[in-house]
Specification:
- By secondary structure, the protein is mainly beta.
- It is 5% helix and 38% strand.
- It has helices spanning 4-10, 188-191, and strands spanning 26-30, 33-34, 39-43, 50-55, 59-60, 65-72, 83-89, 110-115, 129-134, 145-149, 159-166, 171-176, 179-185, 198-206, 214-222.
- Strands 1, 4, 5, 7, 8, 9, 10 and 14 form an 8-stranded antiparallel sheet that branches. It has a 7-stranded antiparallel sheet with strand order 2-3-15-6-11-12-13, with no helix packed on it.
- The termini are far apart.
């Protein structure tokens, strides 16, 4: 696990470090647009928008991965929605949007959500929150980690996110703004993906009647691309 000093150094990434990976390595869908050489705007500040950005190559979960990005979840607090989700799925396909965070209905899948809107009927807490869900189930009764409340994310600022997978320890760690928000200990290759270690990963965002611009800024990506790349089905969206 990263030391506190390392996490403090990572916190500088959102303000000073240049990107070590390119937005050109992502395939965009919906309202997603490139802002600059490191940032993608997934949704504009408008109703019923949805956007996705998928890394163009599948990765191998038998190897470690590390994702360091900065999230911007808009400036609308009470009138803001819905949040950003990270998806891991054997096919490059986005699930139901809006409250579905882009991973609803995808089986098998793992989704890490950064939810900024309280859907009471989904078991959301009143605060912005982080959770890990599997197999396209979005109700928090089915969450395998969380929901963990966090301070308001809709402040217009960049929030440093670090996601790390250790295949030896079978540990998935999510650190937001230098604080651990989720820590999953599970053999996700065997237990979730049926022994298939080849998956795509992407990030999605959506709005509904309430809105926000929502961005992802790529800082550092470190993972092993799968030796055999599956066929890409980018157009199949629900």
């Amino acid at each position: 696990m990263r030391t506190l000093l390392t996490l403090l150094l990572l916190s500088l990434f959102c303000t000073s470090a240049s990107a070590q990976s390119s937005v050109e390595e992502f395939r965009l869908g919906g309202t997603a647009r490139i802002l600059n050489d490191e940032c993608i705007r997934l949704t504009p500040d408008m109703p019923f928008a949805s956007g996705s950005a998928w890394y163009e190559k599948a990765i191998d979960l038998n190897q470690p991965f590390e994702i360091t990005v900065c999230l911007v979840l808009g400036k609308n607090d009470e009138m803001g929605a819905d949040g950003i989700g990270f998806i891991f799925h054997p096919i490059m396909r986005t699930g139901y949007r809006g409250e579905g965070m882009g991973f609803a209905g995808l089986v098998p899948s793992l989704g890490i959500e950064f939810d900024t809107y309280q859907n009471y009927y989904l078991g959301d807490p009143p605060e912005d929150h982080v959770a890990i869900n599997i197999n396209g189930q979005i109700h928090h009764a089915a969450s395998i980690t969380g929901p963990t409340p966090v301070k308001n994310l809709e402040d217009g600022n960049k929030h440093l996110l670090w996601i790390n997978w250790d295949p030896i320890e079978k540990q998935l760690l999510v650190v937001l703004d230098g604080v651990e928000r989720a820590n999953l200990k599970a053999n996700i290759v065997a237990e979730l993906f049926g022994g298939n270690s080849t998956v795509f990963w992407g990030v999605t965002a959506a709005t509904g009647r309430k809105t926000n611009f929502q961005d992802i800024c790529i800082k550092k990506l470190s993972f092993a691309e799968a030796e055999v790349q599956p066929a890409v089905d980018f157009g199949g969206r629900k």
